[in-house]
Design a protein that fits this description.
This is Membrane protein YqaA with SNARE-associated domain. It holds the Pfam family VTT_dom. It comes from Oceanimonas baumannii. By secondary structure, this protein is an all-alpha fold. It has one domain. The protein is 83% helix and 0% strand. It is built from 9 helices and no strands. The longest helix has 56 residues. The two termini are 32 Å apart. The model has no long low-confidence stretch (mean pLDDT 86).
Length: 193
């Protein structure tokens, strides 16, 4: 069973689509608020397919991700009770918000950097930062640095590895896909306690 090989070919076709930068920008924006699909899923194949535009794609992803983060912050700040809290309850994310609050208590602004650079769900922290009324300008600056580092690193790795990396990736794509699924299930089980 090789679903990830087929999905990879499909994503590579989307990566060279003439509207791919628009899709990347939209995905980057909504991923910072509520969307579960990481930006890297689009950014990496786009940078690999068109290495001459990799830095432009990384910049687009960064800018739109931080704009989405600002919107998520404003939702948490101004619309928590009427809009966000019911959504959180419907999705069963109360525990994740509680964890985010604890992380803010423990690490302060560094939690924004951690969430913006690592695979930790950034969206939870953008909304929670607004709810906790974190200072907005430091929130934006740290988000810009963290997201920028992440997306430029992804693009840089794709440019550096190029076709050679793609050939190796294709050979292991299904194994990597199943490992990611297993890691996601494990993370869910650990975080849902």
């Amino acid at each position: 069973m090789k679903p990830f090989s087929r999905l990879y070919r499909l994503v590579m076709m989307w990566a060279v689509h003439r509207h791919a930068p628009v899709y990347l920008s939209m995905n980057s924006f909504v991923e910072s608020i509520f969307w579960p699909v990481p930006v890297d899923v689009m950014l990496a194949p786009m940078a690999l397919a068109k290495p001459d535009k990799a830095w432009r794609y990384a910049a687009l992803a960064t800018v739109f991700s931080v704009l989405g983060a600002a919107f998520g912050y404003l939702l948490g700040y101004a619309m928590w009770d009427p809009l966000v809290a019911p959504f959180i309850q419907t999705m069963g994310y109360e525990g994740k918000i509680a964890v985010a609050r604890q992380w803010f208590d423990d690490w302060g602004i560094w939690v924004i950097f951690i969430a913006s650079f690592t695979p930790v769900p950034y969206k939870v922290f953008t909304v929670t930062a607004g709810l906790l009324q974190m200072a907005f300008l430091p929130f934006l600056l740290v988000s810009l640095v963290g997201r920028g580092m992440r997306f430029f690193l992804v693009s840089g790795l794709m440019v550096w590895g190029g076709v050679k990396m793609e050939r190796k990736l294709i050979g292991y794509i299904d194994l990597l896909g199943w490992l990611c699924v297993a890691a996601a299930v494990l993370a869910y089980l650990l975080l849902s306690r």
